[in-house]
Write a structure and sequence with these properties.
With 395 residues, the chain is of the alpha/beta class. The chain is 37% helix and 22% strand. The strands form 3 sheets. The protein has a 6-stranded antiparallel sheet, covered by helices on one side.
């Protein structure tokens, strides 16, 4: 381990590196900056509970499409008591290509601040989806430890976030599908049996088009990730097997052509109108898909595994995803791991550090106890977080 770690600074960069990060009126920070030196792929933030470590990772997660690692609304991340909009800006190194990224709140005369602005190299972007075009960001948080025992919506979001790393258009397709589905639900709720059948058919045709695009991306990604997982060496993080449990994904997995799957879904939506009208929601579609994960050595579904095994499976999935992106896109994602080592034994911590560093991309980790990162002393960049400030720490 020591010999491997000593060479980390000399490893070629093959991923996203944050050269500088600036937060303004974001969560607990009025204004703060972080500037890693880039001597190690691992950046460690330590500090007491409530010091603001997770807030830094959340800010970094806004360099990706969507609502960030806490799934907060745009107004919720603004610093309490501040009347100014929040902003996150960063300079990224993408294999030697420097990119300036900024995102923040557009008050727009609305106190709720419902719009998010994005700028890349000084140019305004139409929406946050463009943040998935050139790089990917992935994360693990303590809240995700319950992923396998919660409802399917959490696993579906987790899956879609991973898919986005390979298919930059995926979030747009998911968002479009959900918007059209809400339009259908609203029409049936408002009009009931008086709803224009032709109008409903047109809406359902749009739903089917987006649904097949979403299902196809999920299946393609899951197949590639399964291959990556199968090739993984036996180690402290168990091999996982994946299955996509969804009606439409099942049709495509059985070999049905996309155009036929669209037609089949349109027919299913039409046949289910009466039931959907009565319930006020759509019963069938990719919004009900589930991700099924199995502990391969034990042939046991993840929800039946111990808490420690579930955590190890999650880590295995995230590492496999990063390796897959490195292999296909030649770029590892930016990794954000919040309090990930607190419940790992020493061997698993060391194995995790080595695996993260070997990816070639940058990884930010947080923890309250610096002793948990003892193996990284002198080999990672440490920052101390306290009193609204973030300072380099040398032990």
């Amino acid at each position: 381990m020591a010999d491997a770690v000593e060479t980390w600074a000399d490893m070629p960069r093959q991923g996203v590196y944050v050269e500088s990060l600036m937060l303004t009126n974001f969560r607990s920070y009025a204004r703060v900056s972080v500037k890693p030196q880039g001597q190690s792929p691992l950046v460690v933030l330590t500090g007491e509970n409530g010091a603001g470590k997770t807030n830094v990772l959340e800010a970094l997660s806004y360099l990706a499409p969507g609502r960030g690692l806490r799934r907060a609304t745009i107004s919720e991340v603004a610093k309490q008591g501040s009347t100014s909009p929040w902003a996150v800006s960063a300079v990224l190194d993408l294999a030697g290509d420097s990119v300036k990224v900024g995102t923040g709140q557009d008050m727009g005369g609305d106190a709720a601040g419902s719009k998010r602005l994005v700028r890349i190299d000084g140019q305004a972007a139409p929406n946050s989806n463009v943040l998935g075009d050139r790089w990917a960001v992935t994360w693990l948080t303590p809240q995700m430890d319950r992923l396998f025992i919660e409802g399917p919506s959490s696993r579906r979001r987790f899956l879609d976030r991973l898919v986005l790393g390979l298919y930059g258009d995926h979030s747009r397709q998911v968002g479009a599908y959900e918007r059209v589905m809400r339009e259908r639900n609203r029409l049936m709720s408002d009009k009931g049996h008086r709803a224009d059948p032709a109008w409903l058919s047109a809406i359902e045709a749009r739903m089917a088009e987006h649904a097949v695009a979403v299902a196809t991306a999920r299946l393609d990604y899951a197949g590639q990730l399964a291959g990556q997982l199968a090739e993984a060496d036996d180690g402290p993080f168990p091999k996982a097997e994946l299955a996509i449990d969804g009606w439409l994904e099942g049709l495509l997995a059985d070999g049905m052509a996309a155009v036929e799957a669209e037609a089949a879904y349109r027919d299913k939506l039409m046949a289910g109108r009466a039931r959907d009208m009565a319930s006020g929601r759509t019963f069938e579609g990719v919004h009900r898909t589930d991700l099924v994960v199995t502990h391969a050595p034990k042939a046991m579904q993840a929800d039946l595994c111990s808490t420690g095994e579930q955590k190890a499976l999650l880590i295995a999935l995230v590492l496999a995803n990063a390796k897959l992106q490195s292999a296909i896109k030649e770029q590892a994602p930016l990794m954000l791991l919040d309090e990930i080592v607190a419940h790992l034994d020493g061997d698993r911590r060391s194995a995790l550090f080595e695996a993260l560093a070997a990816l070639g991309g940058q990884c930010w980790l947080t923890g309250t106890d610096r002793s948990l990162f003892e193996a990284l002393e002198g080999r990672a960049e440490f920052f101390d977080v306290r009193d609204g400030a973030i300072q380099p720490s040398h032990g």
